[in-house]
Amino acid sequence: MLDNEKILQETIAILSEMTADWDTGFSGGIGPQTGIIADLAFESIDVVQLVGAIEERFGKRGLPFEEILIKDGNYVDEIKVSEIADFLAKHLK
Amino acid sequence: MGKTLFIGLDGAVFKVLDILMDSGVMPGLKALSSSGSRAILNSTSNPLTPPAWISLMTGREPGSHGIFDFLRPEEKDSGVVLKLNDSKDVKCETIWSIAGRQGKRVASFNFYGMSPAAEVNGYLVSGFIPWKHLKRATWPPQFYEVMKTIPGVDIKTLGFHLEQEKKCFQGGAMPADEASAWIRSHIERERNWFEIVRRVMVTDPCDLTAVVFDGVDKLQHLFWPYILGLEGFTGTPEKDAIRELCLDYFRKLDNIISGIVELAGPGASVFMASDHGFQTTGEIFYLNKWLHDNGLLHWSEPDSFAAPGQLTEGRISSHNGIFDYGRTVAYAWTPSSNGIYIRKAAEGKPGVSESEYHEVRERIRKGLYEFRDEKGGRPVSKVLTREEAFPGEYSELAPDLTVLMRDGGMVSILNSDKALKPRTEPAGCHSLDGIFMAFGEGIKKGSFGPLKITDVAPALLYSLGLSVPEDLTGRVPSEIFTDERMKAAPVAVEGRTLSMGGQAEKKDDGESDVVMSQLKMLGYIE
After folding, report:
1. Is A68 on the interface with B (CB under 8 A)?
2. Contact B511 A62 (CB under 8 A)
3. More confident residue, B396 or A24
4. Which residues, including other chains, have CB under 8 Å from residue A2's CB and lie 6 or more apart?
5. Which of A5, B27, B329, B377 is 20 to 30 Å from the Cα of A21, by its Cα?
């Protein structure tokens, strides 16, 4: 069973690996309050790739990511790392 | 038996290559190909990169491998959602896997749809992926770090640049300075891929080395009349400069081809192919406008029209806003598929019932055939049902109808005051007649009748000395191999491909929600 802290650390690890070569200009370490769009310069295609990487890492395809990506019918402007981890904690347990 | 080399040229057509070879722009290719075989290579029913390259790699038709376009719309209770096809959606085994599990080492570079990279017996780096995600597209994973250390390689140039590539579908003229930078970026990208190929061929040569150069397609989309030197596209310094840069791209590509063949050595068997051909398109058919005129589609903003030459929205996520789904029964989602999707009726949702489906589909087909231009000509050359265009186990994933235009043009999905308009200037678009060339060890000299794109995989497997799985659609084109070779190694057809391929995953009923959420999320794609 994955605990919340483990899921958060895995999420951070995935993001760290994914963005290692990117010129994001983000100097701080990735943490729960890091915004993937404002801080890590994610574009739409990057979000798609992130979902694929998360699903691969956790061995579960098709998680309902729209729960955190779409609010009131519109795509959100920002997603915090903690929101992703909380979402995963909810759906992986 | 020597090495087998495959060089893919996305969108290459003899109409252009012959001119370039005969005019001295591609002397290397001319010398190499003069000793070998050539044939027209018939593409998939809709000659488009995703279905065609996947058919080439699997030896199977799109109805079997399930890839029909870059994107796929899916009808859900909440509306139409979008999926970006990737390697996990390919439902047939690729030659990388077939050859690898029979002990052959392979190196595959820049092929469409191979990301995330599956494990292969050798190397694989997928194409059509933004550079930021090449790591996931690379096997073995550590080879990504190796690529970064190769002198002359800038990993950022290898990737697919969405902002740049979508210009091919947006239409319209490109300013000269932008055109120059755009062409140079493709020259640089091909050079970088060559450096990757060279590294592997020198340090760890594989039995099969295969690489695709996709700049041919991109340049032909945007600069077709310049490449052909059509009237009105030469004679000014600006136009001549664009043409010269295009020719320079082909000169550099010629050097790269010669370089790779030289690296493969004198005992190699070399195969070259394109996923589709190219031709001139001079008009745009606004398919959704036609569906609207026939009462099947309603616009969200009826007074919003496409800019001249525009085929689609700048942002794919904006597609959802184009149609009034509450009143739309049929629609075209992408220009590239030339496909019409007919919605299935459900509670609270417009569409066609099961019993009406065939009648409605036939009515649309008949109407399209009856559509006439201002001179009474018929712009729509063929309207194929999905059973006709893409027979196979996964046919139901294809558009209900595929509309082929008389000039091969991609349709516009946007609104217009007229359903058919001339383009402001001619452009290049896909055609069925791709190229096939082979030369080197065991290859006969001559021109042969058309081959099918599904014949390439069997040809490569045969060249590797392997048997051909019996469930491949294509055949070994024995006519291009020398009699000595055929006698020494008769074609063996035996065994079957791995069920669902090495990497594809069958979607069971329980996974439908999963697919829906993936598609929804893909609305992010611009």
Report:
1. no
2. yes
3. B396
4. A10, A58, A89, A92, A93
5. A5
Between CA B318 and CA B314 the distance in angstroms is 8
Q: How far is CA B491 from CA B142, B152, B268, B456, B485, in A?
A: 37, 42, 19, 14, 10
Query: What secondary structure letter does DSSP report for B454?
Result: G
CA distance B320 to chain A (A): 11
For residue B513, pLDDT over 50 is answered with no
Which residues on adjacent β-strands are paired with residue B279?
B429
Answer whether A22 touches B (CB < 8 Å).
yes
Residue B442's closest CA among B456, B462, B458, B468? B462
Residue A70 near chain B (CB below 8 Å): yes
DSSP state for residue B432 in the 8-state scheme? S
Q: Kindly identify which residue of chain B lies nearest to residue A57, measuring between CA atoms.
A: B136
Distance of alpha carbon A70 from its chain centroid, rounded?
14
Smallest CA–CA distance, residue B506 to chain A, in Å, is: 12
For residue range B109-140, list pLDDT tens digits in order: 999 999 999 999 999 999 999 999 999 999 99
Q: Is the dihedral of CA B142, B113, B81, B284 positive or negative?
A: positive
Chain B CB within 8 Å of residue A2 CB: no
Q: Are B40 and B435 in contact (CB under 8 A)?
A: yes
**Continuous H helices in B94-236:** 95-101, 142-149, 155-158, 162-165, 167-170, 176-203, 215-228
CB of B511 within 8 Å of any CB in chain A? yes
Give B222-273 as a DSSP string: HHHHHHHT-TTSSSSHHHHHHHHHHHHHHHHHHHHHHHHHHHH-TT-EEEEE
pLDDT for residue B507: 40
Per 3-state DSSP, what percentage of chain B is helix, strand, and coil (rounded to 5)?
40, 20, 40
* Residue carrying the six token digits 């075209």: B332
Query: So what CATH class is A4-20+32-92?
Result: mainly alpha
Domain spans of chain A, in order of start: 4-20+32-92
Dist CA A15 CA B264 (whole Å): 39
Please tell me the distance from the alpha carbon of residue B449 to that of residue B451, in angstroms, as a whole number: 7
Q: Which residues pair with B281 in a beta bridge?
A: B427
Residue A71: is it exposed, middle or buried by C-beta count within 10 angstroms (0-12/13-18/19+)?
Answer: exposed
- What is the rounded distance in angstroms from the CA atom of residue B228 to the CA atom of residue A11? 51
Full-model pTM = 0.91
> Judging by DSSP bridges, how do beta strands B71-76 and B79-84 pair with one another?
antiparallel
Instruction: Tell me the domains of chain B and their CATH numbers.
Output: 4-126+194-276+432-488 (3.40.720.10), 282-424 (3.30.1360)
> Is A62 in Cβ contact with B133 (below 8 Å)?
no
* Contact between B137 and B126 (Cβ < 8 Å): yes
Q: What is the dihedral of CA B25, B26, B28, B29, to 10 degrees?
A: -160
Residue type, B166: K
What would the two tokens of residue B169 be? 């579908």
What tens digit of pLDDT does each residue of B338-396 get?
999 999 888 777 889 999 999 999 999 999 999 999 999 999 999 999 999 999 999 99
Contact A61 B505 (CB under 8 A): yes
Q: Which of B136, B514, B515 sits opposite A49 (nearest CB)?
A: B136
Residue B355's CB is within 10 A of a number of other CB atoms, namely 8
The partner residues of A74 in beta bridges, in order of sequence, read A71
The answer to whether the complex's ipTM is over 0.90 is no
